[in-house]
Batch of 4 targets.
Target 1
Amino acid sequence: MVTALLLEREGAAPLGAPHMHVREAAEVATRDEASSTIRGSFSLTGVSVAYGRDQVIEGVDMEIPPRSVTALIGPSGCGKSTLLRCLNRMNDELGNVTVGGRITLDGVDIMGKAMDPVELRMRVGQVFQRPNPFPMSIYDNVAYGPRTQGIRRKAELDALVEESLKGSALWDEVKKSLKKHAFELSGGQQQRLCIARALATKPEVILMDEPASALDPISTQQIEDTIAKLKDSVTIVIVTHNMQQAARISDQTAFMLRESLEAPAHLIEIGDTKKMFTNPDDPRTESYITGRFG
Amino acid sequence: MSRTSRTRRARSAEAVARILTGGAALGVVAVALFVLGYIVYNGIGAIDFTFLTDVPRDRGREGGILPVIVGTIWVTTATAALTLPIGVLAGIYLSEYAPRNLATRAIRLAITNMAGVPSIVYGLFGLAAFVLTAGLGRSIIASALTLTCMTLPVVITATEEALRQIPQDLRQASLALGATRLRTIYKVVLPAAAPGIITGSILGLARAAGETAPILFTGAVFQMRRLPEDLSSQFMSLPYHIYAQVTSVPGWNRTLVWGTALVLVAGVSVVSVIAALWRSAQRRRVKW
Amino acid sequence: MSIPPSHGERRRGRTTMRRAAEGVVLAFIYVCGWLAIIILAAIALFLILNSVRALNEAGLGSMLSGTAWYPTSNPGKFGMLPLILGSLLVTAVALVVSVPLGVAAAVFISEFSGTGVKDIMKSIIEFMAAVPSVVYGLIGVAVVIPLVKDVFALNSGMTALAGGIVLGVMSLPTVISISEDALHAVPFDLRQGSAALGNTRWQTTYKVTIPAASSGIFAAVMLGLGRAIGETMAVLMLTGNAAIMPTSVLESVRTMTGTIAAEMGEVVQGGLHYSVLFAVGLVLFVITFAINLAADLVLEGQRKRWRR
């Protein structure tokens, strides 16, 4: 809680010299409580999203515990990806999107004016549906985020690149060719590069928007293995179409549904993945999971 | 009419159409080759060391064209230095920042219309605005500013198109890593779009180097004893030199004037064609 | 697992300096973005300001309808009609040359040629567009003028015809590339649909593709027209510049652009003649602006049609 408050101050503090004190304080607090406070938990209350006048999501309440995998499932067009983009405020970039309700990250409101979306995104990374490496070398791709944060020292960057590529299980395949152009990698490798790129900013949360939908089965397997390893250190929120995948990799599952084109999507049910797939509370969840629609 | 005769008629119509349109295309090629060949044939004889390194003598009937070449390089370089930053920033605005509204539509309309304003009108504008009102006098800088106004639409359009080719995915990826829009543009989008921007700009600048009307009243002179020293100097220029020789020097030296034309065309067209080929090669290499 | 707990504290964040620098760059971007409108407005403004004297003393109506252009007589006569008609006549000749040839070549490039031929044709068109107008003028002086003189047995080959032919060649790149774009933009499905009905390539082209691209081709013609009307150097060198009411393409004419270029060097700055030349520029600006606006609206309509 102390950390959370300090973080809130950090987010709101004017930048520059006075900022230093706050950050130093935060540093101390983090070190002290590194073992007790695990960061990266989201709390959503009454979240709604509208594209212009078109209400697409309404009344979503959701708790996302830290160091866990939360899967968002539901038929296409039910607003899973839109909801995901609320968590790192990527919807801001689309222009006419308004988000209502309250979203907090470790107790700090992320939708207020005090939160700079640019700084939020350093803490909440994202991996996209199609692999989208930058047109530069493997090394430069991974070092992009840290460099954005102002890290210039080569030794520090080298260490971060190695650590991140190990985190996404790509290190062994590319350690000898870090200067190679990222486009020379296969699709699956590119996607793991994108995961490494997201890890390099040391995020607390990584959002994944159908990260394996453009990949072959073997690459998909590798991505899933990576996710399983990563949840020890980061919170993962994943949107997926593939229910087997949700069942395999997630700890909790949220089912969203837009019941008609006129009505906005709702969160139908959220719960422990095992329970959701074996004994869901809502009949709509059951019929979706058993493949009756979607 | 039987089906076979209809097919036969369709086939012969097809053949006639191919011959006619192909003939037109061939005609265009023939004209282009004639233009190229005629310039080279008439001009090549003039090209030697003296021609490229001497000053014009006897009002241009003898001697070389060194100050003419140097003047063209001066004014084109100054134009490039002004046009590129402004044009690229404007292209970035249109591609990355401009909202979809009436104002942006008006900007686009202004750009296409700028491209259609006659070059002589730019000359009038340059005379009134830069030479007289701004007090720059007839000078390289006044001419360069005039040529900049004329070239800007080309550079802006080239930049905007090149930026639009860059997939939205890449911008999203960079933003999601906590980069600002500006950093995203500077680090990811601009480098990826650079080939298109550079090529388009070179094409625009090559045209500017060959323009006469905008510099007629803004700084080009018929004869200069010395090379230009700074941006406030007047200057000689290849296209203006050709025009002045043909229209105001009785008994102009055909060989030297064609030689001047060859130097101008070689400079302008070689650069343009290389730039165009390079761009299409780049387009084929990088598929998003 | 090698990733340690998150290190939020290591982030440097965005410093005040960096934000300020970004603000400055953004301001530049916005100013440059709006610069096109500013320049275009400035052009109009300067043309109008410098035309005021001419409009007051010579009068717009009498300038536009006057048939006598004797700017240096005392008092000067500033009837622009010979110049306007001269421009229109030369432009008309140019269109007769460039439209059929250019559109047919565009059809060939777009519909009947493979990638290799297409690339070569595009390079050639690029070359034609890159040749400076003064060089076209020079070729006209050396080739077209003697040719016109001999063929029509004239005293001088410096005629509207000579200027128009060269101008037509010069507008070819504009006409070809914009028509080709318009043909190219016609969706593949549409052609396939026609081919599936048993139409040959040419039947598809003239029944489906050309009608579908017609607005774009029309815009190409408009833009070629705009280019030809605004062209200066070649006409100045080729048309003989006699400011008389034209009656035939085999006579010498003087265009608006040529008049400005030839006379601006000899006038007194701020004088009536000077102002009248700006008025000629203003007329030219208004004409080309209208042409370009029309072409732009047509092209925009076409773009909307194929957007899916």
Target 2
Amino acid sequence: MILLPGMAQTLKACFRRELLIGFRNRGDIANPLIFFLCMLVFIPLGISPDSQVLAPLAPGMIWVIALLATLLSLDRLFMTDYEDGSLEQMLLSGQPLYLTTLAKIWVHWMMTGLPLTLLSPLLARLMFLPSEAFAALVLSLLLGTAVLSFIGAIGAALTVALKRGGLLLSLIVMPLYVPALILGSGIVQNAVEGFDNQAYVALLAAYLLLCTMLAPLAAAAALRVSLDT
Amino acid sequence: MQLALNKLHFEREDRALFTDLCANFSAGDIVQITGENGAGKTSLLRVIAGLCTQYQGEVLWHAGPDQAPVDHQHYDFRAALLYLGHAPGVNVSLSARENLRWFFSLCGYQKEQAGDTSLVSVVSDQAIVEALAQTGMRGYEDVACRYLSAGQQRRVALAKLFCSAAPLWILDEPFTAIDKAGVAALEARFQAQREAGGIILLTSHQNLQIEGLRTIDLSEYQGRERT
Amino acid sequence: MAWQWFHRMGSPRWFYEKFAPWEKGLAIIAVILLVVGAIWGLGFSPAERLQGNSARILYIHVPAAIVAMAGYYVMAISGAVGLIWRMKMAFISLKCAAHIGAVLTFLALFTGALWGKPTWGTYWEWDARMTSTLVLLLLYLGIIALQSAYSNQEAADKTSAILALVGSINIPIIYLSVKFWNTLHQGATIKITGESSIDASMAYPLITMILAYYLAFAWLMIAHMRAEILQRERKTVWVQDLVKESE
């Protein structure tokens, strides 16, 4: 009987590895942020610089852009590990693929969703979002971008074996993003209009929990299929 | 300890690569899978390792006389397996040491001894450094792998062989991009593993200087009628 | 007994041969019901009190929307069966349900738009039901796109099955959130008449049409699946024998 290291140790090692890789490639963290900023510059240029026009658009616009920024960062999620053979090693290690996938998704969020969330008040200022909605914006993005990473990971795992899966990935993931977008921008909208937010926040948090449990399972199953060629 | 292949049949794009492949490997076997390009050597190794599930037949792992044979998707098989594929499984952002440390915190273990189930220890840092030295990577332990050549990256992967306790090795072209001295060191390591009672399955285009080498020629299993 | 039947279902050849009469029978019944329901609904049932004759499109529209939704669940259940029991037929059923479901969803959207013009004065309105039907269409299209992206049949089948399952868990959440969103933005949308009770004179033709749509769905599924079987099993002896016979 041969015993492998326990789950806690495995999870810790996977986190450590992903964080190290993220830290070594820290230049990549800036890319979604720059994209976010570029898009925010385009909106006044394309629509109107008038604060009366921009302010009502702000909650939805910021959310749509955050969604697009996450989407663009997704295709790299499993690509490197798929190409260099690390994914095979994870699968054959005898450890649950769920754990390695979970670690990868959380770190992905820490590298894309979290910086975006932290930067969002600054960008909301450019869109003339009323300042009383800033806290709601940060909270909604904090929960919501994690949901985006989790669901997006399923799409990334389903398309990792396709060499040019980028557009297809967006195509299959975007309809699944509908609830996150509605709840997330709804939280901000509610805060702008001065309504109570508890129900929306609770729903989004529940959705995040559901995704945390199920999305790594689906992504792990998809990775197995992707390696099975 | 035994690995049994039972009537394996594998097709790709409606073409049968091998049919009715039966074989038994037991402790101390070193087996070279031969066949021309495209004969299905890599596919066979991936089927046995459990990466590829689109086959018919059985792969059974029999860990010991007092244990029942298990399928190769089973934990016991995975725990006993060390697989090296075409891609080295080395992340280029990490150093050799970090890559191996991660790998062994997933798969490093010791065998359970006399009822003491707590004895699960990860391969030590020192063992990793020594293993790297044995593949000629001394002094490169902390260099990010992106600055290493393809051959050196493979050596990082091969260093796993020098500190792993896994009894079953499945190695796809382990000698690719390895120089003469490296090949000799590997062959010596294979002998040692053989004497320790391991099983090694490998593919290679080289003529290996290993005593007692068994070969399986895949061309024998092509174009057969299925029974 | 039930298990034996289940195992037989897994054999493409058995399905192909067994369901040949079903295909014909269902086709006949479905077409008859469609014609009867359409004439009944369009010609003989009373005009709607507020909307007049334009409301008669509901006999085409409502069944399409119902069956489009059911099609997604047929697809997701097929995917689950395929992944769990590794059954070839389940993956074939998944693929066919995706195609037919997408067409029905499109039909529901299209007839909904036609209905919207005389009723709301606009072809498109971001109302909760139309929006979630549009999202349903996007989900279908995603699955079809994923299927056609893989050249390896097995990978195409399994990935689309996983996506269908993920989608089926998400659909209730999507519907709920779209409803939420609709109430949040109520000011912008036009009030639609609520769930009013429907008179028997209109309910019977509607039920006939719904039944007809379900039967037509089953018929199209079987026809599509039998065609797909021939395509996938083209290298086997029994399909080649069939081809020789027909020549």
Target 3
Amino acid sequence: MSAPETQAPRRGDVVLSAHNIAKSYGSIHALKGVNFDIRYGQVTTLFGENGAGKSTLMKILSGVVQPTSGEIVLDGEGVNFTSSTDARDHGISIIHQELSLAPNLSVRDNVFMGREIPGATGVDFAEEERQVRLLLEELEEDIDPLTPVEDLRLGQQQIVEIARALSIDSRILIMDEPTSALSAAEVEVLFKVIRDLTAKGVSIVYISHHLEEALEITDHAVVLRDGTMTAYAPRADIDLEWIVRNMVGEHYDLGSPPSGYAFGETALSVVDLTVADPNAGFNLVDRLSLDVKAGEIVCIYGLMGAGRTELLETLAGRLKPKSGRIFLEGEEISSLSIADRIACGLALVPEDRQRDGLVQTMSVGENMSLASIMNFTRGLFTSRRIEQSLIADTIRKVTVKTSGGSAPIGSLSGGNQQKVVIGKMLATDPTVLLLDEPSRGIDIGAKAEVFKLLAERARTGLAVVFSTSEVSECLSVAHRIIVMHKGRISAEFDSSVTKEKIMAASGESVAA
Amino acid sequence: MNQAIAPKAETAKVDKVGGMSIGQLLLEGRAFFALIIIIAVFSYLSPNYFTVANFLIMASHVAIYGILAIGMLLVILNGGIDLSVGSILALCGVVAGALMQGVELSPFGVILYPPVWAVVVLTCVFGAFVGAINGILVAWFRVPAFVATLGVMYVARGIALLQTNGLTYNNLSGRPELGNTGFDWLGFNRLAGVPISVIVLTVIALLAGLMLARSAFGRWLYASGGNERAADLSGVPVKRVKITVYTLSGILSAIAGLVLSSQLTSAGPTAGSTYELTAIAAVVVGGAALTGGRGTVRGTMLGAFVIGFLSDGLVIIGVSSYWQTVFTGSVIVLAVLMNTIQYGSRARKS
């Protein structure tokens, strides 16, 4: 790696700087020598796509994980955080992307979890409650400190998470996607709090997928891509286009929409589909209608919480819609079970591979044949011969790199595991294949292979719908790009659209 | 960086291809080696241990636990647990006992004496019914398996006590003029010198093994136990699988109840208490994971024989029954420890 000093220009007021930070998980390099400065009383924003290494870098700065190599310098001295408590003692606190609250405890107990104020008889609950009230007042949020966190809606829980970080009086505050569940008004309040904090000399590290929102608050921008820092600039020198260009890069090709053939009949038809949030009054998917033809590839782009996963899981039969109808090749399938929908030719490759896609206790081959087991059951028993040929066939078709069908599924890399899940669903011989974030957590090479595979199958008449939160993937093999925002289709483009247009359509501004 | 890692990966591959190390071999086949050691040690300590007659007697003892353990294995593979098997065993024994005493149909003023085959079938159907209650509670009403089967364990035991008023049916042999003799066949007869109970166990084990290894249902069971959400999204009917395993466990408990009352020629409401724990122990010693998705009939059978041969061996050499409990407990803890090592190392590899 090159010298650290040359990449990140320094000013006199650097509070913390990270030099050549690298982090590997086994053979996966999450960070490859990143340099990064945090400045006194200013906001530094980290930009980057999913898997670029933002969260890993923040976890290292807050002591949650230890870097494989590299050095953190705080106030000119090298430090080595062994735990998040250690980092907290140095004045660094973090608001995690995933909420880390105990849902059964009250707001007060969550805010002071692990740092209870000692009183005469155990914990001084009155003092804790007073401080929490002050914090919530500052955040302009009307929550009783004694409410159990599980009774709050997601946005309020995020406020509690923020309140907890603020209660620590830290010098450096890391905010990893603090606004993902907040309303526009709540974001405004948060920004006001951030400005107050920076005025008091607190340094903020900010991460957000809402690029425009982040631009409003930040003083410096750092862009990460594939574990390396690709760009650094102060706010005055940058705009949205600069960020997107540096985030996405232009150096790799995810393919182009397959052409030279005509689409077939409408394969999947969704009419006025509405899915309600089981815990709240609003709709996750709101009267959405969509038609997909045989041979067509449709990409659904949207931010977290746009309703992409809910839409796809409802189509597959995991979630029950509130209203609306689903047709597969003209036949209504709205009331069928998951198994029946698979039998009819509708298959879903779920978003979370580990949780929903794979059975970790089974081998590669058993995972691949799981969904199509009835196709090789003769009488009471499965036919080993047919199963083996099916597995060998699938391994070849989806190009899984494995020592064989009997290898444990855990021995495969993320990209190859994803191909196993896709192969499993393709083995059911679907007419419509839904893929929820098929590229999540896999490297670019595997990504390109997955998209190539989808393009090949589309040529043979498969209708493909895939979702993504990375704008560069919209412009790969998709014939049509649909942008979802708050459960609705906010825009629809053909494959000639630009990244900037897609991003703009996904944000708050379009919906308003 | 890449260069440093490459040779490591290669050596790891070579190790795998070159076969398992001795440690791994011992770990994978631990129940088998434990059984060999137990047989060797007791044969050395007692001249009566290593005889065909003794092995057959011990095997017929193992049969009861073994049949229960197969049902338990199915439930544990699904990621559940069935605490009610001992109680269902007793209740089914009592039901069979009552049927053998004759069923009085008061409106007609007649007493029906069903033939033994009908008693067997009715008892199995009853066991299936109680098992299905477990399954429905767990699958449809989402009661945790531990709690649902704990409740059924109490209720079944209570009904068995109510049915007999706490007493035991002693007359199970039937009468020739009523045409319902032959109940003791299950417990006492032999085919080619092998006790019927051992044959029953063998047949059930073979059928269960075949079902797990070769049928779609077996694959569904492993999948839903390993990752229920993934199985569900792959079109596995996870609820049906769940209800089926508890029902099968109920049927197997009924069969064990029939064999036990036949061996004892009596059916008591207190039979089979704590048998559920022995069955769980056999499954665990056999290498199955209590978290579900891992385990085989072969392992469970070895586990049942390890526990059965160990406790019978201790009786034969005259060790106090208090010590037997200590030994059995130690074997179970040791087995779970080994499971943790085995599955833990796999998890790290992935």
Target 4
Amino acid sequence: MKIFSIAKFDLIKMLRDKTSFVIMLVLPIAFIVIFGGLAGGSYGDTKIPVGITNLDKSRISTSLLDEIKKDNTLEISELDKDTLYDKVKNANVEIGFVIPGDFSQKITEGKDAEIQTIKLSESADYSVIQGIINNAFTKLRLKEGTISYLEENMKNIPGTDIEKIIPELGKIIDANLSKPELITVNETKFADKNKTTDYDPKANMSISAILMFVMYTVVLGAGDILEEKKVNTWGRLSITPTSRSTVICGKVFGTFLKGWVQIALVMLFGKFVMGVNWGTSMLDTIILISVYLLCVTGLGMFMSTLVKTNAQLGAISAIVITATTMLAGCYWPLDFEPVIMQKIAVLFPQYWANLGLTNTVVGGLGIETIVTPVLILLGMGVVYFALSVLGGRFKVEAKRSVKKAAAVKRGSELGVQSSEI
Amino acid sequence: MSYIEIKNLSKSYGNLKAVDDVSFNVEKGEVFGLLGPNGAGKSTLISMITTLLKPDSGDIIVDEYTMNGNNSEIRKILGLVPQEIALYPTLTAKENLVFWGRMYGLRGSLLNERVDEALEIAGLVDRAKDRVDSYSGGMKRRINIAAALLHKPGVLIMDEPTVGIDPQSRNHILETVLKLNMEGMTVIYTSHYMEEVEFLCSRVAIVDHGKVIALGTKDELKKLVGDNDTLNIELTSTSNKVLDKIKGLNGVDSVSVEEGKLKVITPEADMVLARIISILDIEKSKIHSVNIEQSNLESVFLHLTGRALRD
């Protein structure tokens, strides 16, 4: 109960600070409006070039290609295998796909039909393209499954014109699958591992805005303890029967709630005002964002042990958060960065959160694609929390040996001494 | 057995002994004063009694609970009014009180009842829904005290609770302390304002440089000064020469300067005053006012340390 009380009053305090609250919402929204708008324009005009080699040439693989071509985000070129390799090597196409010769046979037999992917390096667009292919493939499997079932069961019914019915049925299925509502039905029946969604370039910028600005909120919120020391309430809390661990848990939970309030409001604004598509799997998004919030709360607590005042924390946060968000590939594709920077990027929570959110929101890939980011973010969070505990102890020792005498002389020790017991 | 026992308590910061082998007892139901100048070690002592700070050595026993093994139990008994305002400025007075009540484990109707009582004591029922940052200094002090009363502590520890406030709020606070004490609450009151300690406390420990230099009832302490009076002489200007001449007079026990006023302790006020006037006349130092006080805790401190309390 005390944990909830601490969190609740922290949330009230945040809502009371109207200026900060407005900035907390206005900045990310402005970011989405400006950069999301720009990104939306550029993606709208320029399609992602994708090369496909169809070695199967069957009705099924052709049907798959037709489905993929329907997506306006991709510019599909059908190429022979050698040309495809050359084009990928020369970066004339973003990614190449090879549909193997036994593709339709495997589909018919219900086996896993693999499509070979050829790419130069990790691409920011890869998850988008993968999402579109999966989507097309899912629809194809539904269509083929339905048609083959009907063919099997209707061929012995006298007076039935199979040749006429099947193409008509194919058209009806195509028409209905183009409706977004049917994507869910599609997933549950045939391809629950391949959840898909339409690509929305605004979502990319929205993700970046959320990851960066919520990090500010959470890191500065985690520094709330510094503010408590400033207004002397930390010392007062320390002499109540409420244990230190309860207070810390309350603070962490409060920071977590503050982060979620910001994210929820920005997401709602993005969805209803900007038309951002947050994907079809809110559960994946919620899990990932929650873990990210915990992780950056730990980071904030650790950073607050390195400084003495909220002003110092604010200054350090501005540098650390902006720089690491850039390095983590939230502003631009990681390919734009030198290789060494790409390797360093994996050290930052934004990289993993961005990867997971891009997979689930933009790419529409399944929950399995956020498992690694979630686990790594959890691990990072544990490390940050551990460091904040160690950092806090180190700080207390340093204070004991250096600064206490001065505090005594000032005759005003409550705030300084509060961290000792 | 006393309600609070402080035994040989010491605390150092590097080479500085903030509290040096301090011992005293506080009896249940009394108002015990800790009097000393800024930096004497009062706040360090209070921080140790309230479990905020670990002593280097010595024992603290509160209502038979020994510190370190029973800090949680001790915290339930104690209510601290810290020297600084320790409230959330953006929360209302009521919200602050609800929060602090919950931190002491109060809930539901009992919490609401205690919050209402505390607001009543603070005299701020009408302003309960206003944010604390809209309050005057005195009102903040009163809520600061109210927050320490929510759990009905056995001992109320007040660390310089009247610093920087208007006389009206100061009187309200002093009257509140007396009222709480009459209802049975034990109070430890620290201040460098001699008048407050003299007004409130039955027994007083005078603290200087981390040590208790005198301990007893007010009358017992005043006896330390004997029948001395204090001459308060306000001058246009003072000089070391004047001070040295006055110090050299027969019958002068001690001399100090506080806020431009000469404080002279002497058993023969009338005779010494005539001689001082003569010196001031020779040194062409003009007198604004002269006042003769009978011995008080201020003169006790001056007598014991050679310094005024607010030096």
